[in-house]
Structures are given as structure tokens and as C-alpha cells.
């Protein structure tokens, strides 16, 4: 395995991204959006709904090339990108295990994924089809697929949205445990401030549309020390810096 | 009034029974027995009609059966069945492959579709007979012209069906494939073909039925073997029993293919759907 956490950061410098609505009106989605994520860091892109977070992610994933500006992925990130979309986007006609292995490059298709299955609690689900899974389980499979590729850059697009809080919380812990055993640079989109404070090293706070960076909130404290008491302290200091973000 | 007649209660009960029945047991053989019984009734009606109005034009089933046995024993029937089946298979594969490729390209490329759509409509509406006659005139009375003409009749149908399928492809799967750098072959095998599967099934279902009927016309008009040629021969001899023997044996053959080849394959291809929670 190649060492991760060294070399160039993820650096984003999007000057402008516009959409043309059906009525022919031009809507600016992003304007002068620039930030960096250091290698090996877990960063969150926090902003109000509809501010252009997912748009940013689509640009970084190479799914949307119609924008002005530039970005560079961390070293090795060009072909080792992984993503967890808002929808799990599993192939319904392939089993859980086939879905995960399909994302791997040909020469690694038979890699040992036991650690991944067990840490995400998917051991007994391998032969099931996605239609037989609950929403929470399908999300776990999508997370497993992303980590199986041992990405140099991982993008998460609100992976815990529309789950009940208990399930979401369990999944956050699972994500953290997988990520700490295979650290990689992560950029996660969310509008849940608590989630961002629990998971990330750095929160990039976005303004409403057209999105630009309002400020960076770095959390130096290691995750294992972030107990409820400390998290509410962090939350308070976040609100002091960004009073109108909820 | 029994529980079966009552709305909700009856529904609940039958649903329960179905869940607990072992697959492959009575649940499957019942519809099979029903269709067998229905066919027997048809046979009985035919026998009755042939007895009530005896005529050369409508031989009784027994006579057709004797003819079938005689032709099978002489080896004529298997030979001509094989010839026809070979043509059906060749035309089927040819039209499915060519039609699917063109249909897919038109489905994903709107400008190409706009340009070629009138061609598709044109070929869709040319009568099979015209294509066959023209193929024989232009390319001679040979196997290539025969199979080509049949395939050409079917290709527009395949194009139209697969084009719909290609238009309905879910872009999210393509994006997933792009992010994870799936190879073109993997995309075809794991992303595109499974999404096109229902459309491919529909095209091949209607395809086999259409193709074998057209193959008979092709053989009738310009081949020296096959079921169509034999029907032509017995038509001139006014031997209705032989005509029916050949036609029915080929129908039976297609039924067997449907039962033991097409349906098991479809069950396999859609297993993920039946198991869905």
C-alpha cells in the first residue's frame, strides 16, 4: 500500500460556476470558492441547503466540467478517487460483495476485504442484493465500496442524510473506525453542524448561494477526546465565530 | 359466504398460503396443468369438427399425428425442421446484435436519432414480402439473401425497443462508473446490459415469433429445404395433414425453446428483482 498523508493537498479554486435555468435565467451557484484540505485530513464542507455543496463535489469528481477555475487533487488522487453519493447508487442486479469488488481495479478484485466487511458489520450480507437491504445498510455498503478502493481522495456527499439519528450516529462511528484504520484525505459535504464537529479536522463554512468560503474552523483536538461536553464547547466557539450559522 | 369470498380476509389468507409454499411444487404445476387442459379442449373441438364435417381441407388430429410420425421416421421432418431452425437462429442473432447496437447508439445520441429516425420508420413499414422479393432479386436465390432479408425485417423492431431502453439508462450509475474508473467492458457488462435486460427480453420475445414466420415465407418463395419449402410442396399437393404436421411440430419446437431456454435464462437474469424485499 502506498503511503497516504504526504505530498500535495486538495486545493480548490473555483472562480465561477453558473447554471442556466429552464426559463433561460443564469443562476450563479459558486463564486470565488477556494479552500485547501491538507493530505490525510478529514474536512467538512458545511453550508445551508442548496448553497452549491453538491455542485462543488460534482466538479471535484470530474462529473461537471463546465466551470471557470481550477482544482488539484492530492497526490495519487487522479485515479484513486472514491465517492459516497447521497443515494447509495448500488447496482440492484449485483450482490453486496459484487458491488464492492466491482469498484476495485481488475488486479485487486480478489483482494482481502475481510477487515472492511467486519468493521462495517456486513459479514453476513455479502450475498444479498441491494433491494434486500435497509437504507442504513445500503449506505454502509456504499461506504465499504469507497474504502475498498483504498482511495487517495474520498468524497462524501451527505452520507447520513435522511437516516434516523440513532442509525446515523452508529454509521458515523463506523465511518470513523474504518477511516482511522485506513486514513485518507476526506472531503465531506454536510449541513449538519454537530456531525461536522464530531468528524472533522477542518470545517470549511460556506455562504448561501452563490457559495464562497466564509471561514475555516479548524479543530485540533483528536477525535477520541471529543466527548459531549467538549463537543458543546466546540459548538459554542463555532457559534461565536459564525453567529448566524445554525 | 366463505372466507375466500370476503375481500380483505380472503386476500390475507391467499397471501399467507403463497408465502409458505415451497417453490416448484404445486404453485408451478397448476398453471401448467391448466394450459395443458385448455389445449386438450382445443384438440377435442378440432376432432369434433373434423368428424361432423369430414373434408380434405380439415383432417382429424389423428391423421395429422400419423403424418407426423411417418415424416419423422423417414427423416424428412427433422431435416427440414433443422434447416428452418438454423435460419431462425442465424437471423435472430444477426438482427438482435445489429439492432441492439444501432438502437443503443440512437438512444444515447439525440442528433443521430433525429437524423436516422425517418429511416427507422421507413424500414419499420416496408412489408416483409417486399424486402424478401427485393433481396432475392438483388442478391440471388441464396442463403445470405434469405437470412439477410429476415434479419432486415426484424432489425427496425429491435432498434425501436432498445432505443427506448437506452433513453431510460440511469445517469447515476454511469457517474458511479466514472468515479470508480470502470473499464468500458465492465460498464457494458455490469451497468448497461443489466439496465437494458428487460428491453432485450422484450425484443427477443417478439423477435423469435416474428422471425420464424418470416423465415417460412422466405423458404416458401426461394429455398429448397425447410418447413416453408415443405408447406409449399404440400400446398401444391393439397395435403393439409402434412401442412399441419410441419407447422405444428415447428410451433412445438419453439414452445420447447421458450420453456427450456428463454424462461430459465430470464429467471436467472431477473433473480435480483424477485428476491427484492
UniProtKB/TrEMBL annotation, chain A:
InterPro entries: AAA+_ATPase, ABC_transporter-like_ATP-bd, ABC_transporter_ATP-bind, P-loop_NTPase. SMART domains: AAA. Keywords: ATP-binding, Nucleotide-binding, Transport. It comes from the Bacteria. Residues 12-233 form the ABC transporter domain. One of its GO terms (molecular function) is ATP binding. Pfam families: ABC_tran. PANTHER family: ALIPHATIC SULFONATES IMPORT ATP-BINDING PROTEIN SSUB 2, TAURINE IMPORT ATP-BINDING PROTEIN-RELATED. Belongs to the ABC transporter superfamily. This is ABC transporter ATP-binding protein.
From TrEMBL, chain B:
GO terms for biological process: transmembrane transport. The chain crosses the membrane at residues 81-107, 119-139, 233-257. Belongs to the binding-protein-dependent transport system permease family. It is found in: Cell membrane. This is ABC transporter permease. It is a multi-pass membrane protein. Residues 81-261 form the ABC transmembrane type-1 domain. GO terms for cellular component: plasma membrane. It holds the Pfam family BPD_transp_1. The keyword Transmembrane applies. InterPro entries: MetI-like, MetI-like_sf. It comes from the Bacteria. Keywords: Cell membrane, Membrane, Transmembrane, Transmembrane helix, Transport. Its main location: membrane.
Amino acid at each position: 500500500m502506498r503511503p497516504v498523508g504526504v505530498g500535495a493537498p486538495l486545493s480548490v479554486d473555483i472562480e465561477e460556476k453558473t447554471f442556466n435555468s429552464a426559463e433561460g435565467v443564469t443562476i450563479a451557484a459558486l463564486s470565488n470558492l477556494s479552500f485547501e484540505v491538507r493530505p490525510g485530513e478529514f474536512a467538512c464542507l458545511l453550508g445551508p441547503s442548496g448553497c452549491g455543496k453538491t455542485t462543488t463535489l460534482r466538479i471535484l469528481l470530474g462529473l461537471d466540467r463546465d466551470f471557470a477555475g481550477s482544482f488539484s487533487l492530492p497526490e495519487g488522487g487522479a485515479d484513486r478517487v472514491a465517492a459516497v453519493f447521497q443515494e447509495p447508487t448500488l447496482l440492484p442486479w449485483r450482490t453486496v460483495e459484487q458491488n464492492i469488488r466491482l469498484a476495485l481495479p481488475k488486479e485487486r478484485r480478489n483482494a482481502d476485504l475481510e477487515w472492511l466487511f467486519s468493521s462495517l458489520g456486513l459479514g453476513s450480507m455479502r450475498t444479498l442484493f441491494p433491494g434486500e437491504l435497509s437504507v442504513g445498510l445500503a449506505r454502509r455498503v456504499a461506504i465499504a465500496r469507497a474504502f475498498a478502493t483504498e482511495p487517495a481522495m474520498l468524497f462524501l456527499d451527505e452520507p447520513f442524510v435522511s437516516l434516523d439519528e440513532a442509525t446515523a450516529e452508529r454509521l458515523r462511528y463506523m465511518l470513523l473506525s474504518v477511516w482511522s484504520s485506513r486514513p485518507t484525505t476526506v472531503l465531506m459535504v454536510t449541513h449538519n453542524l454537530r456531525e461536522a464537529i464530531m468528524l472533522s479536522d477542518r470545517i470549511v463554512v460556506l455562504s448561501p448561494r452563490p457559495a464562497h468560503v466564509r471561514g475555516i474552523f479548524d479543530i485540533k483536538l483528536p477525535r477520541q477526546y471529543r466527548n459531549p461536553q467538549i463537543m458543546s464547547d466546540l459548538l459554542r466557539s463555532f457559534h461565536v465565530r459564525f453567529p448566524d450559522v445554525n | 359466504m366463505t372466507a375466500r369470498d370476503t375481500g380483505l380476509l380472503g386476500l390475507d389468507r391467499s397471501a399467507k398460503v403463497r408465502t409458505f409454499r415451497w417453490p416448484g411444487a404445486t404453485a408451478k404445476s397448476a398453471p401448467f396443468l391448466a394450459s395443458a387442459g385448455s389445449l386438450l379442449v382445443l384438440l377435442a373441438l378440432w376432432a369434433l369438427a373434423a368428424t361432423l364435417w369430414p373434408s380434405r381441407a380439415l383432417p382429424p388430429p389423428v391423421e395429422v399425428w400419423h403424418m407426423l410420425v411417418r415424416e419423422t421416421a423417414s427423416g424428412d421432418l427433422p431435416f427440414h425442421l433443422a434447416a428452418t431452425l438454423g435460419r431462425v437462429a442465424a437471423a435472430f442473432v444477426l438482427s438482435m446484435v445489429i439492432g441492439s447496437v444501432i438502437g443503443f447508439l440512437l438512444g444515447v445520441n439525440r442528433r443521430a436519432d433525429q437524423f436516422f429516425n425517418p429511416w427507422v420508420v421507413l424500414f419499420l413499414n416496408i412489408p416483409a414480402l417486399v424486402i424478401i422479393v427485393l433481396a432475392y432479386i438483388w442478391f440471388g436465390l441464396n442463403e445470405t439473401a434469405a437470412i439477410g432479408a429476415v434479419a432486415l425485417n426484424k432489425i427496425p423492431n429491435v432498434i425501436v425497443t432498445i432505443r427506448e431502453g437506452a433513453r431510460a439508462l440511469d445517469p447515476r450509475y454511469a457517474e458511479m462508473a466514472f468515479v470508480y474508473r470502470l473499464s468500458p467492458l465492465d460498464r457494458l457488462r455490469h451497468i448497461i446490459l443489466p439496465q437494458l435486460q428487460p428491453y432485450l427480453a422484450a425484443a427477443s420475445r417478439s423477435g423469435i415469433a416474428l422471425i420464424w414466420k418470416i423465415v417460412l415465407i422466405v423458404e416458401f418463395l426461394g429455398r429448397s429445404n425447410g418447413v416453408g419449402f415443405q408447406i409449399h410442396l404440400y400446398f401444391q399437393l393439397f395435403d393439409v395433414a402434412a401442412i399441419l404436421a410441419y407447422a405444428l411440430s415447428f410451433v412445438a419446437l419453439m414452445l420447447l425453446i421458450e420453456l427450456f431456454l428463454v424462461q430459465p435464462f430470464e429467471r436467472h437474469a431477473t433473480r435480483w428483482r424477485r428476491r427484492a424485499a
